[in-house]
Each structure stands twice: as C-alpha cells, then as structure tokens.
Amino acid sequence: MLPADTPDIDLEIEEFVIDALERLPQPFAAQLGSVAIVIEDEPTPAQLAAVGARGLFGLYQGIPRTRLSADAAPAPSKITLFRGPLVRASGSREALAARVTDTVYHEIAHHFGISDARLHELKGGAH
Questions:
Q1: DSSP string, 82-100
Q2: Contact 122, 106 (CB under 8 A)
Q3: Are 20 and 106 in contact (CB under 8 A)?
Q4: Among 66, 80, 44, 70, which Cα is nearest to 118's?
Q5: More confident residue, 31 or 39
Q6: What pLDDT score does 122 carry?
Q7: Nearest 10 degrees: CA dihedral of 111, 113, 116, 121?
Q8: pLDDT tens digit string along 90-112?
C-alpha cells in the first residue's frame, strides 16, 4: 500500500489529474469552464452524509451544466479528490494513477449532469 503521508503524493496526484484532463476530448474540456479541482485529505462527515456514502474518492459540488438556463450566470463548480481514500485503495502508483483518472472523469460526468446510476449503466454494470 502507498503511504498517504509521502511528501510528494500531492504532486503525483496533481500530475495524474493534469494527465487525465489533457486526455479529455476537447468538446468536454472546453465545457469545464470554471470548475476547480482540489485535493483534500479526507471527506468530512457532512460531505459523506450529503451523498449518503460511507466513503468517497471524489465529490462534485456545483450546478450541472444540464440545469443551467440560457440566461443563468455560470456558477462555480468544484471537484474535490480525497487523497486518503484514493491512496488507501491503491496498492501501487499505477493503480493510484488509474483511480485518480477514473475519479476525475466520474466527477466531470456529474458536471455534465450524468447520475451515478447512469454511470453504472454506461460501465456495463461493472464497478
């Protein structure tokens, strides 16, 4: 298991996020607008309760693009990645890179209004 307190783990996670964003197809990347992506240690009890989860790798907070009206000012959105759960679930740097990428794409999908249920369907029912 990777140690979560490795001094350069945040830099590695940032690099994995940048790599994931660079591989995002341009039509989607162009629609991210002011979405901030941040890394925090752990989800708070309030964050867990808000989504009814026991654990989280990431969290999208904002108004999905599908809910914006034509005259609505863009509201800032935020994607938070949680270092502790990501690192604990990953046995290697390669696994961490894959998990970070998957989490970034999952949370970006929420930005576009795709629900967890629909994401599950799109993945063919696989977790």
A1: EHHHHHHT-SSHHHHHHHH
A2: no
A3: no
A4: 66
A5: 39
A6: 81
A7: -120
A8: 999 999 999 999 999 999 999 88
Question: Over the Cα atoms of the chain, what is R_g?
Answer: 15
CA 63, CA 48: separation in Å to the nearest integer? 18
Token representation of residue 24: 């995002």
pLDDT for 36 equals: 92
Output the CA–CA distances (angstroms, integers) from residue 32 to 26, 28, 63, 95, 108, in the order listed: 10, 7, 12, 26, 8
DSSP-derived pairing of the beta strands 58-61 and 36-40: unpaired
DSSP type of residue 72: P
Structure tokens at 68: 């914006």
